[in-house]
Amino acid sequence: MHVPCFDLTRQIAAIGDELKHAAGRVIDRAAFASGPFVSRFEDEFAQAMGGRHCVAVNSGTSALHCALLACGIGAGDEVLTVSFSFIATAEAISYTQAQPAFIDIEEPYYTMSSERLHDFLQRKTFFDRVGKILVDRETRRPVKAIVLVHLFGQPAAADQICSLAGEYGLAVIEDCAQSHLARYEGKPVGTLGDVGCFSFYPSKNLGACGEAGAIVTDNAELALKIRMLRDHGQKHRDHHEVIGYNYRMDGLQGAMLSVKLKHLKAWTEQRRRHALVYRRLLDGLPGITLPAEREGSVHVYNRFVIRVPNRDEFISYLKRRGIGTAVYYPRPIHLTPAYCGLGYKAGDLPASEQSAREAVALPMFPELRKEEVEFVAKVVQNWCDAQKCIGQRRES
Ligand SMILES: *Cc1c(COP(=O)(O)O)cnc(C)c1O
What we know:
This protein is α/β, with parallel strands linked by helices. The chain is built from twelve helices and 16 strands. It has two domains: 8-261, Aspartate Aminotransferase, domain 2, CATH 3.40.640.10; 264-395, Aspartate Aminotransferase, domain 1 (Alpha-Beta Complex). Helix 1 crosses helix 8 (251-261) and helix 5 (114-124) packs parallel to helix 6 (158-168). It is globular, with a radius of gyration of 22 Å. The two termini are 35 Å apart. The structure holds pyridoxal-5'-phosphate (PLP).
């Protein structure tokens, strides 16, 4: 049996005709940039995500960039986030000319640790008495916001983190690129902080037929600012009030996303069903750490990520048996050459670094068949048995 880690062609086989029909309508109306198909998707997505306003953009990275700018982040500022994420989380901060500072993750969940955040705020910052601005003791930069990542589909500990943010006067921007329809204490992610940023990159839980993204917020003022930023800083045609960008969503993507959004709930349930099978069959295996599901939360499993100490051997063992895996993310952001200028060193963020060394994603996408999930689990079980034998042989 050959089981790919991710395969979009199965989804296209199922809904390709629906997509082609919708694409035909966009072409017939020549509604290519913004326009009615994008507006319709904005309304549908706001409703599906439980937010009052949705602004569609051309990528998740642009969504984060606009959200940060709209929250007033700019040159000289500092924004707290995690290092164990896709690099776009940090890049969006850098685009505003602010600087990221990294908080370690809460190890079983792969999301920001509220304890580490609390430590950082208590020990590494102070309130400037004159301006009442929170300042980083080391960098001397004003600390303005948190970018909270719901990684792999797992909601971060939003209650604790948002209440710390409230206490210290920080904006909270949620990076929901991997967590469409995830819920925290009954509330949809994207509505827990000030603004939620989504990506529709093809491999996300809701993927466009190309690049796209969106922001969701209940704050009308933020939504309006983001609308201006995505379209050259104009509120009305030819009234450029700020320097903006061309971050508009394609009409084609709006139409594709409206088609796919109708399937998102069912796809999410399928992902969760596969996760349950993995859990049932892999629970308690020595050397394998399963992804924890946060109590009271709905994890939507963009990826099913386990930890294995001898990851490279594990990956080639599965590969030889026809199973695809992927590593997210082999290098924490603070140790990439791109961010070496911040001065972090190995050992600074132990949980993030351990995850970067040991995390590996098993096949996960809605169209996987149950036999395939069971086959993957069986091979992982065999691997564990083989490890035990090797261990015994070493001992004797
Ligand atoms: C995909 C992703 C992004 C960026 O989204 P794009 O649409 O690819 O620009 C940002 N953050 C995280 C966590 C992601 O997974």
